[in-house]
Design brief:
The protein is of the alpha+beta class and 221 residues long. Helix content is 16%, strand content 35%. The chain is globular.
């Protein structure tokens, strides 16, 4: 768990008993300036860089939700960068100004995240069907794959946006669709999107090289 998050929760608890005790504390510098506040186990892939940012606007009740961050192009944020927390995947940077970034939330109809079933590395796509901000859905895992309630869902290795093994959530329930041969799987997200405060913007140092190489395939097809 990130150190500053623990400090923030403790301060909130104290503040509830002693209002006004911490009127001038700014938690953001704790994240920005203290490298010890970053849990290195979140990004085991060392080819990824990270930048801490504060959430200054967020929605969870719309069909298409966005998140605004207090970091922009002057901080190195660019379109297409991933956004995570210590609890999981949050979204992708959609657009950037000098001082701010707009993120397409995982809670958006265009969100599609490549996933692994952690226990056996079967892959699928996680989407959000709306309504419940704590639940996302996988609809493309074949029914011959053994799954159980409680199985962990993580990011797969096929993306240059997120590193592999970022935790996303656990299977809360599922049903077999014999008509098409696939499950409908509901995944309870680890992150509470209604309580987002701070995030990490991440970027692979090798993503440009990978994209340039893969363009050769697109040209030859």
């Amino acid at each position: 768990m990130v150190l500053n998050h623990q400090i923030h929760i403790l301060a909130q608890q104290i503040e509830s008993y002693f209002p006004g005790l911490f009127p001038s504390i700014d938690y953001e510098p704790l994240i920005e300036n203290n490298e010890q506040s970053f849990d290195s186990t979140i990004l085991p892939d060392k080819t990824f860089n990270y930048l801490a940012a504060k959430v200054i606007n967020n929605s969870v009740k719309k069909r298409n939700n966005f998140i605004t961050l207090n970091k922009g192009s002057k901080n190195g944020v660019k379109h297409g960068m991933g956004v995570i927390t210590d609890q999981g995947v949050i979204g992708i940077v959609h657009s950037v100004s000098k001082n701010f970034a707009l993120v397409i939330s995982l809670l958006h109809k265009k969100s599609a995240i490549g996933i692994f079933l952690k226990k056996n590395r079967h892959t699928g796509i996680l989407t959000w069907k709306g309504f419940n901000y704590r639940i996302a859905t996988i609809s493309d895992l074949p029914i011959h794959i053994p799954i159980n309630v409680g199985d962990t869902i993580i990011t797969n290795s096929y993306s240059n946006i997120y590193p592999e093994e970022i935790h996303i959530g656990t299977i809360s329930d599922f049903k077999k669709n014999n008509d098409d041969g696939f499950y409908t799987i509901n995944v309870e997200l680890f992150e509470d999107f209604n309580n987002l405060r701070y995030v990490y913007v991440i970027h692979s140092q090798q993503s440009e090289e990978q994209l340039l190489l893969e363009k050769i395939i697109a040209t030859d097809e």
